[in-house]
Structures are given as structure tokens and as C-alpha cells.
Design brief:
21 helices, globular, 2% strand, 503 residues, mainly alpha
Amino acid sequence: MLAPHLPMLQVVVPLLMAPFVVLLRPRGLAWAAATMASLMAFAIAIVLALSVVGDATLTYRVGGWMAPYGIELRVDAFGALLLLVITGASSMALLGGQRSLERALPPTREPYYFSAWLLALTGFVGIAVSADAFNIFVFMEVSSLASYVLIAGGPDRRALSAVFKYLIMGTVGATFYLVGIGLVYMMTGTLNLADMAGRIEAVADTRPMIVAAGFITVGLALKAAIFPLHIWLPNAYAYAPHVTTAFLAACATKVALYVLLRFDFLILQQHLSGHAFQFAGYLMPLAVLGILVGSGVAMFERDLKRLLAFSSVAQIGYMLLGASLVSVSGLHAAILHMFNHALAKGGLFLAVAAFAAVTSGWRLEQIGGIARTMPWTFAAFVVCGLSLIGVPGTAGFLSKWYLVTAALEHGALGIALVCVILLSSLMAVAYVWRMVESACFAPDFDAETDADSTPNRDFAAFSHLLPTILWIVALANLYFGLANALPLELAKSAARTLLGGLP
């Protein structure tokens, strides 16, 4: 009975729980309600992903109104894969981060924080299922405003300046997207994406459409932290509460990249003459620069969270590089890497949350000897780090391998791109090794004499759950590196759909 309504329930479950959570004052109840809603959303996402395997598409007409007059929700392979990433990241972060968030939040602020968490989740999944360009903007604003609260809600006051920069950049990006959508609506008279694709051919090469393409691309590039529009990302990740960073790093930028790829490939490239060449010509150099600069800065960064944040800039470059090849194999690699990077980076930030429980900070010199104090947690951290590098047997290797094979289809240019990929992988080895070296060989931190350190007894209160969740994520990196049928098939189907009639 519920199966036809699952696309709508994906949005409704966290949305309806968000105001209810505010009423739960006893400590721990707000977390329990938010976690339950997130797990329900995760279960719905799994069912939807299994339902769309094999190029199937699920649609839901809100109120029974036919599109384009009514609001339509649509779930295909690409959207289903993104839903798995969003809801999975939210569920794992909430399950593993209860005590970490309790230590970071005053009791009176806790219900509001988890309500904001559910609103961010609502916005992200709403973007993934929406088939209407303006509704994507609405859900984008819901997720952005809630994300600002999540980043600034922790105890680190530096998060206020970081979130202000994020707010400015995010507002500019959303405004650019809205201006572009307004121009498209002016020329086509519709906001439904499928209907828009059918009407745009008659006005494809007009000046308003060309300007709209520029506004939409730049606006979504800001949201996706594509180099050099990434300046909001490092501090936002560094100063947010640890498990919040794990949630946002796994899915926030990928949602914006999802919208960019869907809009650009399904609408603009299908009808604007020469747009595919322009997409590759402008974004491929930015992808290469993002890969090299992000990896280079990460090699010299000593703050663990900023190091991983600049690594994310490089990984976004991988995704953009695959898409800029404008081929089924390139898109396949890019979409698969969105899934695999979420597994690796989410696990790494969860490990940072565990480290921060017993150390005075998360700089490299402050995690000295952590491998001896928390050997199992550190082992899971290493597994996720190997996946980030792309070591064979991990999920990260699979998407990088497909990216290399896609690049080699392009002759001399492809060989140059492969050299960039290999160089950046070696740079990833360097900065992951710096973290391992500090944890294993540096002098032990002194949690007893450091006045700013967190007592071990606080860590013991939640260590039974966070390392367990961390190992689930680490084992997922190994599992999807070997048994990868579901994400592989969803990524292939998504790539075929995006390319459509393009050669």
C-alpha cells in the first residue's frame, strides 16, 4: 500500500518529525526521535534504490495533479544513489555521534539542533526527488539554512565567522541559480524539468538561454565548492561539530553537483549547440586545478579537519573531471565516485570525532600516540584512508579505475589526465601517511596534564557505539570495493540517462 507513496514519504518523514523534535525536552529524546526518522528515511532510500535498478523510474504526482500543472516527484537511478548517500550519512552520523553532540550542545539547545538536522535532511532528499526546478531551489534553501545552524551550533566560536562566509557564498550561489531558472521560465513557460526539456529546443540558442546556462552553472558550482569557488568549505568543515562535519562532508556538495549534472546534461547539452564543448572546456581545467591544489594544500595542512576538507576539494575535482569528459564512461566514474567518496570521507570524519574525545584537539601534533590508545578506531580510520587513496580492494579504487579508463578513451589528452590522477593519488598517500605517522610514531598526548583535554571517562560513555558505527562504514568501504553490483549498476544507469541522445 505504501510503495507508490515512497518518493513522497522520503521527504515527509523527516519534515514532519522536525517540529515534533523541538517539543522533546528530556535529554536524549530529541536525538532518539531524529535518529529514528533518519533510519526510516534510509530504509525508504534502500527500497527506492532496489526499485529503480535496471533503468526504471518512479514518479509521484502530488495531489494527483498531472505535470507540468502539478508538482511531480521523480526517482531514477541517479537520484536513488544520492538518496542512499544522504540518508546513510545522516543515520551513521546520528547513531555514532550521540555523546559527541551531547558534549558539544547545551541541553536547552539540543532539541533545536536536531530539528535543524532533520530540516537539512529534508532539504537534501527533497532536491534528490524533485522534478521541478523551482522546488529544487526551495529545498536548496531549506537545506542551506539548516546547515548554517548545524555548523554554527557547536561550542567553537570560530564557526560563526566560517558560517557567515558560507552564508554569503551560499546566498550568491542560490541567487545565481534562481536568476537562471527565472530566465529559463521566461523563455519556456514551465518549471517542470521534463516539460522544460521538451520546450527548450525552440529557444535554445537565444541570448537569455545562454545567459541562464551561465548563471545556473556558476551558482551550482558555488554550492558544490568547485575550485576556485570552494573558499567557504575548509573552515565550515573545520569548526562545525565533528559528527555534523561527517554528515555534511558526505553529501552536501554532492547534492549541488547532482543538480548541476542533471540540469546541464538533460536540458542544456541536449539542445544548446556547442554547450557540451563549453562544459568540458571550462570545467575540465577547473577540475584539474582543484585536484592538484586541493591535494597540495592538504599535504601541508596540520589541522586534521582542514586537511580532510581540502582533500574534499580534490575529490570534487575527480567527480567534475569525469563529468567533463562528456561520455558514458566518464559520467559513470564521476557518479560512482560520489558514492565511494561519501563512504571514505564520512568514515574519516567519524574517526576524528572519536579522536577528539580523548585529545586536546585534532591537529597532527595533538593526536600523537592515538593509535596505541584507540587501536581499533585507528584501524578503521586507516581503512577509510586507504579507500580515499584508492588502494585496490577498496571502494575508492573502483571509481578511480573507471575514471582512468574513461580518460584513456581521449588519446593524448586522456594520458595527461591519467598523469594528474596518479600524481594526486600519490599526494593522497603523502597526506594520509602524515596522519598515520603522527598517530603511530609521535610522542603520546598527555590527557591528564592538558587542561583543555576531555577526560577519558567521557569517551568511555560512548565508545561502545561510535567505533562500531565507524567499523560499519569502514567495512562498507571494503564491501563495495569487492561486491559493488548495486552502486555500479545505479551509476551506469544514471550515466546512460544523463547522456540521453548526446553522441
